[in-house]
């Protein structure tokens, strides 16, 4: 609905990506203030991740991730925590109840490198695939700028993609070409449905 909601979802992606449940982000923020804002847990050890985030796009009404599972059932735990935590936040904030997300999350195993490259373009540029209006753009969070080196944030494990190329501009060119193909396919599918 607004920047706070978008930022809260994004914060969930980062803070829920740990082996042990942290409970409420709100309560956890006070614990962090007491022990200092570091990536260390209460015992002073570096926090481990349950998934590597390869790329992401969080749109106003849906999101996409490419994740690499690091721990047993990591993707399942990560998605459950985000879904539950964000639904509780959203329902509390807007005084509503019930499900926020439609059904279970959908997961597809990426089994070839070519599929990985094309899918990363689709995910990183998903906000352009759906052609959101200017009003929605401030609410979108995507790893696209991180991939192009235009962001100081380093949330993604980009080497699996960018390590195959000489320069991020190569990835930008590849992704822009892939986007053209994706948009053409969408138009063709729409035309076929209208026949």
From TrEMBL:
GO terms for biological process: DNA transposition. It comes from the Bacteria. SMART domains: Y1_Tnp (SM01321). Residues 31-126 form the Transposase IS200-like domain. GO terms for molecular function: DNA binding; transposase activity. InterPro entries: Transposase_17, Transposase_17_sf. Transmembrane segments: none annotated. PANTHER family: TRANSPOSASE IS200-LIKE DOMAIN-CONTAINING PROTEIN (PTHR34322:SF2), TRANSPOSASE, Y1_TNP DOMAIN-CONTAINING (PTHR34322). This is Transposase IS200-like domain-containing protein.
């Amino acid at each position: 609905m607004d920047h706070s909601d978008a930022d809260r979802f994004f914060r969930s992606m980062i803070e829920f990506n740990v082996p042990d449940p942290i409970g409420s982000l709100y309560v956890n923020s006070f614990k962090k203030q007491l022990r200092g804002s570091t990536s260390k847990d209460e015992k002073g050890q570096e926090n481990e991740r349950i998934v590597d985030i390869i790329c992401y796009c969080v749109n106003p009404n849906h999101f996409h991730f490419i994740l690499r599972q690091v721990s047993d059932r990591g993707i399942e735990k990560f998605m459950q925590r985000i879904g539950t935590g964000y639904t509780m936040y959203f329902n509390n904030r807007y005084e509503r109840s019930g499900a926020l997300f439609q059904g279970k999350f959908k997961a597809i195993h990426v089994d070839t490198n070519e599929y990985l490259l094309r899918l990363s373009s689709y995910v990183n540029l998903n906000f352009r695939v759906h052609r959101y209006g200017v009003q929605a753009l401030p609410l979108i969070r995507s790893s696209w700028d991180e991939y192009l080196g235009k962001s100081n944030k380093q949330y993604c494990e980009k080497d699996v993609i960018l390590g195959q190329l000489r320069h991020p501009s190569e990835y930008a060119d590849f992704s822009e070409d892939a986007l053209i193909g994706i948009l053409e396919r969408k138009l063709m599918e729409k035309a076929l449905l209208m026949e």
